[in-house]
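User: Please predict the structure of the protein below. I'd like the answer in structure-token form so I can feed it into my own downstream comparison script.

Assistant: Understood. Taking the following sequence of 454 residues as input:
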Amino acid sequence: MKIVIAGTGKVGRTVAAVLSEEENDVTVIDLDPETVSLVSNDLDVICVEGNAADPEALRGAGVASADLVVAATEKDEVNMVCGIASRKLGAKHVIARIRDPLYLHQVAFLRDAMGLSQIINPEYECAKEISRILRFPGASRVDAFSKGSVEIVEHRIPEKGALDGVALRDLGTRFGARVLVALVEREGNALIPNGSTVLHSGDRLSITGSSRELRRFFVAIGEYKRPVRRVMIMGGGRTAVYLTRLLEESGIDVTIVERSRERCDLLCDLVPQAHIVCGDATFSDVLQEDGIATADGFVALTGDDGDNIITSLYARSCRVEKVVTKVNHEHFADILNDSGLDSIVSPKEIVALQLARYVRGLSDSAGSSVETLYRLVDGKVEVLEFQVLEESACVHVPLRELRLRENILISALIRGSKTILPNGSTVIMPGDHAIVVTAAGRLRSLDEILESAR
């Protein structure tokens, strides 16, 4: 697929990297010759120096014959102009990055008026992910499927935890909840488990189930933590504004600590119900004076990874129940594996996966379409949601009779309002949403889980 990406900032570069790994023909365009040169050296993509708002520059980048254009510069208005021009030039699909909170409630209007296929907002998507984590603080990560009817939560088994030494076949009888362990990460290796798999302390599990059953399970194993009620946010940028609004809808008290006086004055207008503190949260006395000792949630959202990490570690030392840290550089996320900071979020990674899902969906695979896509274990494992159509080779056949490829697991089916944790007699039906966990490479359609699809 031919894809043009406008902008080589943090989001643009990450999107270019992910989509080129997906074996697409990627071209990037940017005004800054230095960043264009860096991308050219780092990625297997075509690089063009030019203005993403200039139709002639876009024409030179091949927009007229592009299957998809992603307008991901730092300026919303440039992205809007780029989107309109790309559609006029003949691009089949156009996605624009629009970040300003003022535009949040105008998404449908803007999309229709400018002929856009989709609008992406990295900060808003990041805020939604953080709000899910704070709602389920016993998990280090929460991924939602089918509008939240099924979730996969990530949980590390503590030393002498209730799950240590338990075989998966005994999980239901011992703990009574209807959940399924879809993935076991052990010493950096990803394992698609079966009933005989025995769990050990230190294992990082990805557990599938409805919100209700997951709560029952975490209560049964003694790892349930109540959703937070008082959250302190470090940094008052766009993500903080979106997150504060989401948390306040759930009745959660929010304190934002922001260095800039000018930004603090603006925050008082944008989120008037929040408590705004003008101060430097990297100083412990500022955090202490403003109530970190009584907060049960702390979220570090500044643009400095180092500040976010150090202050998050301090929040942990203050026994804050749930700490979430925004990190932009991937190597920091790897270093933090054993630091105790297990809830790490990255806006650019979230958006890159959204776009990868969208691109796979454009393939129009017979019998299914990709609805949701997440990556686990440093990208070694993918979890996908497929909408199942009548044409799929997987329908009307008991799962025990399907010849699945190795390292693939169907972890859940959503049928209407019902969540099904499948067994050998379960039959996939047209209209179902199938959640598939795979360590067998990239999947573009549900039928690729079958041996015959090789």
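That's the full token string. DSSP finds 14 helices and 22 strands in the chain.
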